[in-house]
């Protein structure tokens, strides 16, 4: 559904994989039925996949671009397939970011404290859920 389960805002000097470990550290206690995680290519790699499997008991799925999408040398013909393709489950993440971007405080990095940014992320998702409940 693209609804936010948990958010962590950390300094930019922390790599994505290390930040994910901070985010996912206690997620299994909060969501015991969680069995599968989707992530982008920044999280690809055996050490992180192994950490997710051992620590969380979940499968980590990294959606990949199709193999037939590659650069074409000068003089060669392009594949008849379109150059743009939607990656499975990736659109859910992008749509959630778009929902957050509708909020003025989340459209840019205005906040000075990570905790304040996290609070506004949660408030933004509360607004999304409230709109859904009101429309039903």
List the SSEs and their pairings:
Blueprint: H1 16-24, H2 27-30, E1 36-38, H3 46-56, E2 59-61, H4 90-101, H5 104-107, H6 114-135
Parallel strand pairs: 1-2
Task: Walk me through the structure.
The chain has helices spanning 16-24, 27-30, 46-56, 90-101, 104-107, 114-135, and strands spanning 36-38, 59-61. It has 136 residues and is mostly helical. The chain has one domain. The model has no long low-confidence stretch (mean pLDDT 82).
Helix content: 40-55%
Q: Number of DSSP helices?
A: 6
Strand content: under 5%
What's the arrangement of strands in the largest beta sheet? Answer: 1-2
How many independent structural domains?
Answer: 1
Shape: globular
Distance between the termini: 16 Å
Let me know the average pLDDT: 82
Please give the number of β-strands.
2
Provide the low-confidence segments as ranges. Answer: none
Structural class of the helix and strand makeup? Answer: mainly alpha
Instruction: Tell me the major beta sheet.
Output: 2 strands, parallel
Series of secondary-structure elements, N-terminal to C-terminal: HHEHEHHH
Q: Whole-number radius of gyration?
A: 18 Å
Summarize the structure.
With 136 residues, this protein is mainly alpha-helical.
């Amino acid at each position: 559904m693209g609804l936010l389960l948990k958010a962590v805002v950390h300094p930019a000097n922390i790599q994505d994989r290390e930040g994910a470990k901070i985010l996912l550290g206690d997620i299994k206690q909060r969501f015991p039925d969680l069995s599968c995680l989707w992530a982008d290519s920044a999280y690809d790699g055996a050490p992180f996949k192994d950490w997710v499997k051992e620590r969380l008991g979940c499968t980590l799925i990294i959606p990949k671009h199709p193999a037939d999408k590659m650069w074409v040398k000068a003089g060669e013909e392009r594949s008849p397939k379109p150059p743009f393709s939607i990656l499975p489950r990736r659109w859910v993440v992008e749509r959630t970011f778009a929902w957050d971007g509708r909020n003025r405080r989340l459209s840019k990095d205005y906040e000075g404290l990570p905790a304040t940014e996290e609070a506004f992320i949660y408030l933004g998702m509360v607004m999304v859920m409230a709109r859904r409940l009101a429309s039903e």
